[in-house]
Structures are given as C-alpha cells and as structure tokens.
Amino acid sequence: MVFFTIPRYHRLMAEIPVKPIDNTTRSALLVLAAIAMGWTLYVTRDLVAPFALAVFFWLAIDALARWIDGLSPRIPYWFALTVAAVVTVGLLAGLVFVVADTVGDVVDEAPRYGERLNELVREGGALVGQDDLNFTVMNERFGLSARLEGIIGGFAQAISGVLSDAVLIAIYVVFLFVAQASFPAKMDNLFPDKTRRDRAARTGESIRHSIEQYISVQTIVSLIQTVISYVAMVALGLENALFWALVIFIMNYIPIVGGIVAVALPVMFGLVEFDEIWRVFALGGILFGAQFIVSNTVQPKMMGDSMNMSALVVVLSLTVWTALWGGVGAFLSAPLTVIMMIILAQFPTSRWIAVLLSADGDPDMDGDGKQDKAPMPSL
To answer: What is the DSSP code (8-state) at residue 182?
Structure first.
C-alpha cells in the first residue's frame, strides 16, 4: 500500500497536464447554463419577479429623491426621500382608484357597446353585400369575444398580480433603502483587491446609471405622449379618457408592442362609442402621430447611448422576458437585458454574447453610461 503525503499529492497533481477547454465545449456549457438560468427564473418567478420590480421602484424613488435633494443644499436627503416615496405611493393609489372606477363604468355600458358593435358589423356587411351579417355570426366564426376578453383579461391579470404583491414589493423597497448604506462596506469585503473593487464599482455604477436613465427618459416620454393623448381624447369626447391616458402611460414602458397597444385600445373603444367615423380616424391619427413623433425625435435624443441595444434585441428580449415573467417581464424587459449585457461584458468567456446584444458591438460602459473607448480589464 502506498501512502501519499499532502505535499507529495499536490506535487503529483501539479505535474498532471491540464488541457484548456475548447471553444465548442465552452459554448455548450454557456448554452446549458443559459437554459438552467431561464428554467430557474421561470420556476421562481413568483419570488424573483416581485423583487425585480421592487428594485425598479427603489431606483426610481432614489433617483427622484436625489433630484429633489439636488434642487437646494438646504433640502436634506431624508426629506427628499420622504417626498419621493409619498409621491410614488400617491400615484399608485390614484392608478388603482381610476382602474377600479373605470371597470365599473365599462361593465355598466356593456349592453350599449354590444348594440353598437352589432350596428357596425351590419353596416360593414351591407358594404360587402352581406346583409344578414351581425356580430353574433362574426363572433362565432372568429371568436372575437374570446380574443378581446383574453387581451383585456391579460392586462387586468398583470395589474392584479402586481397589486396582490404590493405589500411584499413595499417591504422589499424598504429593506433595500435600509441596506443601501452598507453597500460600500460589502463591496470592500467582496473585492479585497483595489483594482477589481474599482472595476466592480464602475460596473455597478454603469448599471445604475443606465437603469435610472431609462426610467427617467421613459417617464418623461410617457408623460408627453399621455398629455397629448389625454387632451385629444377629451376634445373628441372619448369616455373614460383619464383611464386610457393611464393605460398609455403604463404601456409606453413596454418596448415597441406597448406603444401599439396603447394606441389600439382607445381607438377600438372609440369605434363603439363615436357615432361619426371621422372622430375615430381623428383619434387614431392623433394618438399614432404623438407616438411616432415623440418616439422618433424626443426619445432617441434623450436616451442617447445609455441602453445601447439594437431593435432586434429589444423585440427578442421582450418576447423572452414576457414568456418568463408575464406582464412584469414585459415591463422590465429592456432594463433587465441591459443589466445582462453589462455583466456579460465583464468576463472573457461571455463577452461575445454582450457584443451580440449591443447595438454597436461595443458593450463596455463606464460609470456615466457611455461606451468606453477601450475595453476595461475583466473581473
């Protein structure tokens, strides 16, 4: 029997040649890791999604508090934070009140909407020579009621899901603010080496800046589009204009698809509410024009390079995150993908994924949210 001492064991292990992992194996491991991560996010969505939403609100409240704090040196941060929290809670409470009030109005007006739909279908059938066409026949053939109920039900389910987790999200936000003061000390202990600690700090600051920039820009853009849309809806006489304005404001946080839905839903209800067809076309033209002009002029100039994602990646990320987390995933798809891109860019093994996700092929960002001229050393 041969006995190995510990020093001799280490010597023998050091003499064994270690073959580097080839690119095929490395790529396969990355794919398997991505599948495992996606499965984990899907299975734990009831726990992780509320926390991700809480981080979003935490950053939004903190950004608003620091903006208020910067207005005057006499304003203490605790006072600015209190004002920001009260404003956020007030806006969310107002949203819940308007949604609940509007749902009751829509239920009360459902018979009138049904009669108007039948009238519209009969008029359309007469134009194509189908005088016996009515909404009942169309509904049986194409399942219109089921599709409409599915769309509205999905939106209502997303809202109710967030409201049901409101207490848990609020607790998360409170503890995030409580733990915020200990973040620097934790960074020192996690990264004893100063170079790596500085790099990790810059990476975190880049993520924070990008998300805050996204929140601020989307909020301003949504407010502009909401105000224009609300004025147009009130001027044309659309019922529940305030509710539809809030829907437009919320849906604008969902990339691409949100803007389309935000225009389509009020126009669809205008179709059954308005007696004159020109009002429907005017409403659709104004809402679409506001979305198109603001999204293609104001938003790109304000957003700059803080997101650095191509349109294809935005659509793919929206699809993936919606499949994983539903409405919360759609709402957070853009910032979550930016976080992934910045983190993946820090490691040589996964850097190529970050390059593919970026819009210009340069995923490196410094603390101000702009691309570095030269890539920084990885973690």
So the answer is: G
Whether 11 is in a domain gets the answer no
- Chain centroid to CA 244: 19
Chain segment 58-105, per-residue pLDDT in tens: 888 888 888 888 888 888 888 888 888 888 888 877 777 777 667 666
Structure tokens at 286: 């104004």
Task: Quote the Cα angle for 111-96-158, to 5°.
Answer: 80
Contacts of residue 273, defined as CB under 8 A and 6 or more positions apart, other chains included, come to 113, 116, 237, 238, 239
- Please give the residue range of the domain that contains residue 82: 47-180
Amino acid at 47: L
Which CA distances in Å does 3 have to 7, 8, 9, 105, 269?
Answer: 12, 10, 10, 84, 84
Is 230 inside any structural domain? no
pTM attached to this predicted model: 0.71
CA torsion sign for 20, 21, 24, 27 is: negative
Q: Is residue 150 in a domain?
A: yes
